[in-house]
Amino acid sequence: MTVIAKDGYVDLVQDKVDNFHGNQVVYVSWDDHLLFCAAQAFPLPPEMPFKALVFEVIPTVFSWHKEFEQVDWAKAQWNLDGNDFVPDMEKSLAENGVEHKSLIRFKTPGLTGIDGTRM
Amino acid sequence: MAAKKLNLRKRYELLTRGMGWETSYQKMDDVFPYDTFEGIKITDWDKWEDPFRLTMDAYWKFQAEKEKKLYAIIDSFAQNNGQTNLADASYLSAIKLFITGVTPLEYAAHHGFSHLGRHFRGEGARIACQMQAIDELRHAQTQIHTISHYNKHFTGLHNPFHQSDRVWYLSVPKSFGEDALTAGPFEFITSISFAFEYVLTNLLFVPFMSGAAYNGDMATTTFGFSAQSDESRHMTLGLEIIKFMVEQHEDNLPIIQRWIDKHFWRAYRVLALVSAMQDYMLTNTPMSWKEAWDIYFVENGGALFEDLGRYGLKMPKHHELATAEAEHLSHQVWSVFCALGNATGFHTFEPSEEKMAWLSEKYPNTFDKYYRPRFELWKRQKAEGTFEYLASLPQLCQVCQIPMIFTEVETDPMQISFRNTKYKGDNYHFCSDGCKDVFENEPEKYVQAWLPVHQIFQGNCGGATVPEVLEWYKFQPEDGGDYFDSLDYRRWQEWHGNAEAAKTGS
Predict the structure, then answer these.
(1) Which CATH architecture best describes the domain B55-504?
(2) pLDDT in tens, B214-250
(3) Is the CB of B34 less than 8 angstroms away from the CB of A35?
(4) By the CB < 8 Å criterion, does B449 face chain A?
(5) B156-214 pLDDT, tens per residue?
(6) Beta-strand pair A102-107/A24-30
């Protein structure tokens, strides 16, 4: 749709990647663990290895949940921006196709929240 | 010869229509530059039917009388230490959210109506907007005056306007107001006067004003009553402007329908905050969010749109989803406030046993199954001393700016509803089809959204740590956190002679 405006429209993208000081925003959701209410947001360098996301970044927040210590990462199922995918742990976020404001979701088979309540 | 006294009708005409004229030195389009670009075609402003016959002098007189009564009651409330008669100090969380979330919105509406009061070409519409501009200013002012009494005794009421500009959850009402303010005049009035004030206003009025009455808050009840006669004028204006636009030109209909769809959804999302207030913050609740939604939207709103059907207008898009969400909304919103309760300007708390029984009764399909377990868990953790607040920042919806907490209520209520799109190479995320539609109709507008979480990451909010950001919000350390650990709680216990609890907290 064309812009309906009185005067010229300023082309302002508030969250362009350049505004994040070398980082990009990545959202992470642990499915079936709704105590987290929403996916969590992180500013991360695109060159960060995927394994650093999993073993360094994710625990800072998700270890809040008592099931976290039972997570077997070898069995985790990943979804990137709506598509199932198998991350290469050694490669960077960018090389794994993680973009600025990508949404990464993971499921942990067998772990479905406290007492199986999906929370 | 003595001046003849004019009859009311004549007097009314002179004081409204008599105030306008066709300009000759300047082109009318230059004098009124804002009322054509949106595509709304007005062929004859004289067809505008004034929805209420009120002249400015009568308006002043009427308002001044109400004002006198209001301030007399506020004075007596203060002199009699009315704050001690509340149902409970935890009720104040609702008032804290109101003064930071709603009062600044009243002030923003004052700006908007002042603009319309100058820029509508028809003088009848201009004068109605001028009165509403003064109403909105008066509402902001009387709310501040009323609630300032509580500011002497309770936390979290000290910087509402500063916080409105900065705080993560207050960007929800703020961005709604700014969305309307930055639109043209016809869209603004459709948004505020019709979608908000006509279709949804009772959903705000019931929880606040009758909620205040149910909880011994005579001060808030009084400003509610003082505002009520203004609100009925505002509603009449909302309906009149819709009918007027539709009757003026057939090309207007699709534009208006799109605005109704958009602003219904935007305003409804703002009311998600109200739902939590109604079901959880109020100690005594006059009716549940779901009951209010059924009466005021499903029944009354349904009847309204049936009437408007003869103009070709339809129920707002996605209203079915809003109705399906009614059994979930307040629980989901209150959960996120509880999980992030160290970063709120009001106190959070798990519902009492009595309140949970009430919630089970009011929400038989959802509360016990989906929501009771999390509150019981948090309660248990607090009793054991193992509870921790969530130490991260949630993903926000690009349009309503609420954390993306809403779920697939129609298919899988424990699955977050994720929607997204790409625009000019960037990813954008939405909590619902409603918000996604709003974005896709005007992406250029919403790519500019000031999302609090992203602003923190960009370094614009005082620092990268929670304490730094809260300081930038001007939250005092005692403003947030659990009610039972709060200064408000201890003071309340002290007033009511419970010395032990006053010393130690819960």
Answers:
(1) Orthogonal Bundle (1.10)
(2) 999 999 999 888 888 898 899 999 999 999 999 999 9
(3) no
(4) yes
(5) 999 999 999 999 999 999 999 999 999 999 999 999 999 999 988 889 887 888 899 99
(6) parallel
Beta bridge partners of A103: A27
The C-alpha of B441 sits at a distance from chain A's nearest C-alpha, in angstroms, of 6
> CA B150 to CA B92: how far, in whole Å?
9
The residue behind tokens 């360098």 is A45
CATH of domain A23-116: 3.10.20.560
Look-up of token digits 């408007």:
B308
Strands B407-408 vs A102-107: parallel, antiparallel or unpaired: unpaired
The H-assigned helical ranges of B120-206 are 123-151, 160-166, 171-181, 185-189, 201-205
Name residues whose C-beta falls within 8 Å of residue B406's C-beta, 6 or more positions apart in sequence. Answer: B325, B328, B329, B332, B416, B417, B431, B432
pLDDT (tens digit per residue) in B13-23:
888 888 888 99
- A38 → closest Cβ in B405, B424, B428: B405
Indicate which of B454, B456, B469 best probes the interface with A, i.e. most A CBs within 10 Å of its own CB: B454
Q: Domains of chain A: which residue ranges?
A: 23-116
Contacts of B335 in chain A (CB under 8 A): 37
Query: What does the domain layout of chain B look like in residue ranges?
Result: 55-504
Å from B238 to nearest chain A CA? Answer: 23
How close B179 gets to chain A, by Cα (Å)? 13
- Compute the distance between CA of residue B440 and CA of residue B423 in angstroms, rounded to an integer: 9
The secondary structure element, H or E, covering residue A37 is: none
DSSP 3-state percent helix, strand, coil across chain A (nearest 5): 25, 25, 55
Per-residue pLDDT band for A1 (boundaries 50, 70, 90) equals low
Tell me how far apart the alpha carbons of residues A58 and A78 are, in angstroms, rounded to a whole number: 14
**Contacts (Cβ under 8 Å, ≥6 apart) of B495:** B84
A13 and B459 within 8 Å at the Cβ level: the answer is no
Instruction: Report DSSP state, residue A2.
Output: -
**B427–A102: do the CB atoms touch at under 8 Å?**
yes
Give B469's contacts (C-beta < 8 A, 6+ positions apart): B343, B456, B461, B462, B463
Please report which helix (H) or strand (E) contains residue B263, including its range.
helix B252-276
Tens digit of each residue's pLDDT (9 = 90 or more) over B333-392:
999 999 999 999 999 999 999 999 999 999 999 999 999 999 999 999 999 999 999 988
Q: What is the CA radius of gyration of chain B?
A: 24
